[in-house]
Amino acid sequence: MQTRRSHHLPWRRAGNLADNDLSADEIIRETGWVFNNQTGDELNLKEFVATGDKEVQRYIRLLELENISFESSTLLEIGSGIGRMTSTFTNRCEKVIAADVDSAFLERCRQTVARLGRIDRLNTLHVINGRTLSLNDNSVDIAFSYITLQHCQPQDALELVNEAIRVTRSGGTIILNFRTWVRSDIALVPLGIIMRSLWKVSIIGPRLARWRWSTRFGWQANRLKPDTVLAKVAPQLTEIKVFHSKKRTLKVLTTGKNSIKVIPINRINPSHWWLVAQVS
Ligand SMILES: C[S@@+](CC[C@H](N)C(=O)[O-])C[C@H]1O[C@@H](n2cnc3c(N)ncnc32)[C@H](O)[C@@H]1O
């Protein structure tokens, strides 16, 4: 069953492209929506997944996650796409649940993992309404999400954060990536709104969903500040860390009894921040 909510349209359109006759390598090369910043006539699925592999390694180091025993963990990835990072996670974890709003992406994700990861360790989960996860409470050890929550409507993103916490066992870890405000948003945010309305127009819409420049504008659906997220979920968490780029300052109010560590790091996008915490 497909959702009819308008902000899911870009993903459905991209998913439809992934669902046609293109091979995985062709999808990486020929559609504009590859989920990293690498493009090129020679790019193939293996290289695409290698970028995910490198990023997973980098974030484990930057986000101080080296002590987590991934090998005995069940990891939920919210917004797996076609499996750029999922393959790596299946190589590192006991079990991986790849969740996405688009079922065609999940099918591609299974194919990617079958080629480059451990398919025996993978389950997929369709997030039909873009905000709830049909998983039991306390069913995973780690909930991870990268460049996904920024693409949801703010309420959906906050609901997915709640869901990530609900399904993660007590003592488990959430590792969630968000996008917050930067100066260029003065132009980017209105452009995104225009692009998403053009997406609904027949003939033009499907083309805009294919080109890289237009997908980049249209996909950006929210900016969430740490305070907005933490006001909702901090009471359910301990050991809260907020990581952000050294190139900017990021105001985080420490509320209630929870102490929150704010840690500036190198090599992350100035518009991004990460919430890493243990579930109480
Ligand atoms: C930019 S891609 C990132 C994919 C992957 N995390 C990566 O780094 O390669 C964003 C993904 O989020 C998915 N997505 C968007 N909104 C979602 C929602 N509300 N629930 C679950 N997945 C969503 C899209 O279908 C897409 O696969």
Kindly list the characteristics that best describe this protein.
280 residues; Rossmann fold; 8-stranded mixed beta sheet; 10 helices; globular; binds S-adenosylmethionine
Instruction: Give the H and E element order.
Output: HHHEHEHEEHEHHHHEEE
Structural class: alpha/beta
The CATH superfamily label reads: Vaccinia Virus protein VP39
Overall geometry: globular
Cα radius of gyration in angstroms: 18 Å
Q: CATH topology, which one?
A: Rossmann fold
Estimated helix fraction: 25-40%
Report the count of strand segments.
Answer: 8
- Catalogue the unreliable spans: none
**Alpha plus pi helix count:** 10
* Ligand set: S-adenosylmethionine
CATH class: Alpha Beta
Textual characterization of the structure:
This protein has a single domain, classed as 3-Layer(aba) Sandwich (Rossmann fold), CATH 3.40.50.150. The protein has ten helices and eight strands. It has helices at residues 9-19, 24-30, 45-62, 86-92, 103-116, 154-167, 185-198, 204-208, 212-219, 226-233, and strands at residues 74-78, 95-100, 122-126, 140-145, 168-179, 237-245, 260-265, 272-279. Strand 1 (74-78), helix 4 and strand 2 form a beta-alpha-beta unit. The longest helix has 18 residues, at 45-62. The protein is globular. The model has no long low-confidence stretch (mean pLDDT 88).
Give a topology summary:
Layout lengths: L8 H11 L4 H7 L14 H18 L11 E5 L7 H7 L2 E6 L2 H14 L5 E5 L13 E6 L8 H14 E12 L5 H14 L5 H5 L3 H8 L6 H8 L3 E9 L14 E6 L6 E8 L1
Parallel strand pairs: 1-2, 1-4, 2-3, 4-5, 6-7
Antiparallel strand pairs: 5-8, 6-8
The protein binds S-adenosylmethionine.
The site of S-adenosylmethionine has 22 residues, from strand 2.
